[in-house]
Automatic annotation (TrEMBL):
Keywords: Membrane, Transmembrane, Transmembrane helix. It comes from Ectopseudomonas hydrolytica. This is Apq12 family protein. The chain crosses the membrane at residues 6-24. It comes from the Bacteria.
């Protein structure tokens, strides 16, 4: 009977430690930053009209382009 009590209390102590680590001892997860949820500024390609993030666009003469090829070709002229 004494061995059973010892095993019972060992199991209770291990369960308490497991619960403590799992629910109480865990560090809180940081909240997602508000900056991650804001949309990146978009600009329109002067050649083809595609919208791209400003951070990826190329600029020349106050116009934005989606690629180096469109920057070299310049703004689109004429009817589509």
């Amino acid at each position: 009977m004494g061995l059973f009590r010892l095993l019972f209390w060992v199991a209770v102590i291990f369960a308490a430690i497991w619960i403590w680590r799992r629910f109480i001892g865990q560090p809180k997860r940081p909240r997602p930053s508000e900056d991650k949820h804001t949309a990146a500024p978009m600009v329109r390609c002067a050649h083809c009209g595609v919208h791209v993030p400003q951070s990826q666009a190329l600029s020349q003469d106050q116009r934005w382009y989606c690629s180096q090829a469109h920057l070299e070709q310049g703004p689109h002229t004429g009817d589509r």
